[in-house]
Amino acid sequence: MQFELTEEFIEQIEQYISNNDGDALKGLLHGFHFADVAELLQELNHEEATYLVKLLDSEITSEALMELDDDFRERILDNLSPSEIADELDEMDTDDAADIIAELDDHIQKQVIDHIEDDEHAADIVDLLRYDEDTAGGLMAKELVRVKETWTVAGCVREMRRQAENVTRVHSIYVTDKHGKLKGRLSLKDLLTASERTHISEIYIPKVDYVNVNTEAEDVARIMQKYDLEAIPVVDDEGILVGRITIDDIVDFIKEEAEKDYQMAAGISQDVEADDSIFKLTKARLPWLMIGMLGGLGAASIITGFQSMMTTFPKIIIFVPLIQATAGNVGVQSSAIVVQGLANNTLKGNIITRLLKESLLALVNGIAIALVVLVISHFLFFTTFLESISIGIAIISVIILAALIGTFVPIVLDKRGIDPAVATGPFITTSNDIFGILTYFLIAKLILGF
Amino acid sequence: MQFELTEEFIEQIEQYISNNDGDALKGLLHGFHFADVAELLQELNHEEATYLVKLLDSEITSEALMELDDDFRERILDNLSPSEIADELDEMDTDDAADIIAELDDHIQKQVIDHIEDDEHAADIVDLLRYDEDTAGGLMAKELVRVKETWTVAGCVREMRRQAENVTRVHSIYVTDKHGKLKGRLSLKDLLTASERTHISEIYIPKVDYVNVNTEAEDVARIMQKYDLEAIPVVDDEGILVGRITIDDIVDFIKEEAEKDYQMAAGISQDVEADDSIFKLTKARLPWLMIGMLGGLGAASIITGFQSMMTTFPKIIIFVPLIQATAGNVGVQSSAIVVQGLANNTLKGNIITRLLKESLLALVNGIAIALVVLVISHFLFFTTFLESISIGIAIISVIILAALIGTFVPIVLDKRGIDPAVATGPFITTSNDIFGILTYFLIAKLILGF
């Protein structure tokens, strides 16, 4: 069943496009899944992609457009007229259509909305534009199957048939009172087994999970994951059913969040991709490099403070990079585990226990590393006994210190309501660099007494 | 609708457990969602949790058990008899039950299976044990609604009612031929609108996505995401429908994969949690620290080689930590972006273009950092003109070099079929430390000519 996009196929498509051979393209791409069309579009330049979007059926291209990178989609839409964009939106679910409209320039938005054929669809889209994109309202779609508690099973099935026309997939059947307030849901199983004259009020399940339009997207994701929901209804402050969120939107949301955390840990402060412009990439990367630079300058000050060692104990100086690397690595490990624990809510016990455990773990790792370094420094770098002891004790101390900082900082940030993920990566590495090198020199000074 | 687990509530529960007051507990926890029960269990110690699992209805606890951490669940199961475990499995979907059985010791497995009441359920579970856990077979469940193409709509609805008893949620209705070969799927909408005497063969949709039992889990996740599927049927090599995979399992899989990548980038080589034993955490963390240590020792050798500078140009030495930090940070940024691009299949163009772009980006960042350092080193650290120039040029070169290594290594690993994520974190930091410091000294030597 798997579709494989080959070089030859892409060349063939490009050939047809440059020949303006619409019929051949339609024939070649007939029956293609929208996700495969999206993959193909992504391989073309934006003029070629625009050509295909105009050529192919909106039923396919509307869904394919939603799968594209934001930047690439924007460039295609720039080449479409308001009425062509409206054709695409006509085929989209309201949540996707609202996302697209929100991306357009203000003066085009109104023109596009005016061109949407289905007035109800257009009104739904406009309604969705009110909500913040990071809330349940921003994620939800208007398409859902709703039945009233006063209906009979027969009337319900009739009404469902009508509604299902506009709904791609029936996730759940929601039951409301006559004012539209969410009352519960109807299981398909019960609908199938009940007699035609039964009233919905007798068979619906009054227990239903829901979220408010203003619930934050992150909480919606957490709730849907926790309760294994495939769809969740959204209500307004009066309890009126206004939309539903499906799991596929949440899957995308989870992936984006994971990517943001990953980038944050790598010292990239915005959501960027390898293909973004150099300006955008610099904006996301340079600030973190500057933090690292400040750390490096801090370390330079510390070494300057202990500069006399360059002549008295030059061998202490040559192990500075080792201390720095170890402090950075331990800090990142500790903070990453804590950040994940916080995100997954699996961090048990109080902060003191956690710090004690982390210290013990650091002690074990520290002794292991220190022993190896002790032997190597003595036999390969010919350090004196006291120098070796200084280095060994410093490594153990630095590892413990780095582990404590790496554990403590994210927990404190989280308690203060700041995303602990900012504490990973360059931030923790940089502070550990400075504290690590300072500790190293202080211990060396104490033991060697220069 | 949100459930909030308070300290007082947990204390209350613990109190009832220590008083052995089963009735009070049942009353207090009546109507609780399994996910909330799981959250509660996780807050108790394993004896208390075991008490609750034995006390409460298996319909709830079986699902709650699936939500627990593996280690914690194992400790609870250790306290249950084979027949008590079988009671839980009786209520579980076959995929979950098979996962649990696989976790048990060999001699208990057979006893538990013998105690499962429903023979068909037991046979299905045993069948699932054959498959590797990282394949479609290992993810799939046996519960699904299947109809034969020769049936009428009326017969189909009758049969569906029967089958739906065992299926918690009807995701899709699959159509097979009389030998059980997957032919297509049936849309609920079409079933609702067709007349009772229509044959299924006239209304089913012959186009259906599916995977083979041996398809790798990662590919299943990719396919389900790409095509926005909520469930996918699984067939064996003969095309016989043998099971189905639902999106909630895939959501868990995606989360686990994202966490693994995150940990890998942080230098943690196994799937560990903050609450794991010190031994397990050490095993996951120490190897990476050793790699970092080797890097540090390598850097020590390089400085030893340029040791004369400590007396001739001590100011060059004090900027070693700055060079090292910058090289490490740039390398991690570059590799993270490439690793994500590879994972998402969004990396366009060939490797030469990519390296050129990365070089240009590094040049921009490098000049920015170098200018700041140039000014600070000259005015605060009183470096000479030539020393400042050496440091500035070295920073630019090191940033470009680190960016190239960070970009090149993951792409090459990926081309060779190795997970590029191993190249992030300590690995790239360590190699960049060494190359960075070496480059720095070589440039300083060239310009200062010591």
From TrEMBL, chains A, B:
The chain crosses the membrane at residues 288-310, 316-339, 360-383, 389-413, 425-448. Residues 140-202, 204-260 form the CBS domain. It is found in: Cell membrane; Membrane. GO terms for molecular function: magnesium ion transmembrane transporter activity; metal ion binding. CDD domains: CBS_pair_Mg_transporter. SUPFAM superfamilies: CBS-domain pair, MgtE membrane domain-like, MgtE N-terminal domain-like. Signal peptide: none annotated. Keywords: CBS domain, Cell membrane, Magnesium, Membrane, Metal-binding, Transmembrane, Transmembrane helix, Transport. It holds the Pfam family MgtE. GO terms for cellular component: plasma membrane. Its main location: membrane. It is a multi-pass membrane protein. Belongs to the SLC41A transporter family. Acts as a magnesium transporter. Homodimer. NCBIfam families: mgtE. This is Magnesium transporter MgtE. The lineage of its organism: Bacteria, Pseudomonadati, Bacteroidota, Flavobacteriia, Flavobacteriales.
